[in-house]
Each structure stands twice: as structure tokens, then as C-alpha cells.
Amino acid sequence: MAGEHPIQGLMKTAMENLKEMVDVNTIVGEPVETPDGSVILPISKVGFGFAAGGSQFNFDVEGKTTPEQSNLNEKPFGGGSGGGISITPVAFLVVSKTSGVQLLPLDSQTHIYERIIDLAPQVMDKLQNALKKNTNQQNNENTQPIM
Description:
The chain is an alpha+beta fold. The protein has 4 helices and 4 strands; from the N terminus they run H-H-E-E-H-E-E-H.
């Protein structure tokens, strides 16, 4: 590691450890097969953060240096790094021979959004039918003879 700054070693070590913790199996978990032949895949949300920092110090006590210090080309270094990871389960993906593919969210807010998306085509059909009925009624009123 000739020529590398000490902070590079700190960053490399922290990033390697984070890399080992986070892989595709962390986000989409290992499949679990049930007795009826369905396959369940856990889905998770992963977030992580990383920080590193350091400083080099001037080491001169009252203008005097020792022979050991005068041979040093580098200034003393102090630093540190750290990282954190958050894994939150969000849903299960169920693949079944009878009911096809289903997403079962664990968050109630996600469930509400999913229901809205599922109901959107039905709402659009009802609106179109109501508009057609309204248009037909107006046409019938305009074509009937006045007595």
C-alpha cells in the first residue's frame, strides 16, 4: 500500500464490509416453497449510509522536534469511518398455480394504493357507462316530438 493515504484504507475496509452485507438476496429473499406448490419470495427495502473522515496534525511541541520526528516525512494522521444499514421487509410475492402472482404488502398504506390501482378500471367503466346513459337521455329528449 505504498503511496496510499490512511483514509483510503479506512474507506476500503468499510465499503467491503457493506458490500458483504448487501446483495440481491437481501432485497429479494430466498424463495420458500409451500406444500401446495406455491412459492413465496420475501421483498425488503434496503438503505445504507457511509461516512469517513480524518485529519493530519502538525506535531511540534514548543518548537522542538526529536530526531525520530525529524525523520518523518508524514504528519500524524487520525481518522475514522463508519457505515450503517437498514433492512425493512415490505411485501411477500406469492406465485401460485391456482391464483397466479400476488403481491401481499406488509404496509397498510401500500395496500391502499394497490386497491386504488386495482379498482381504477372498474371506476372508469362506471364513469363511461354513466356518461353514455346521460348522452342517450339527452338525445331522446331532443328527438321526441313536442305536443
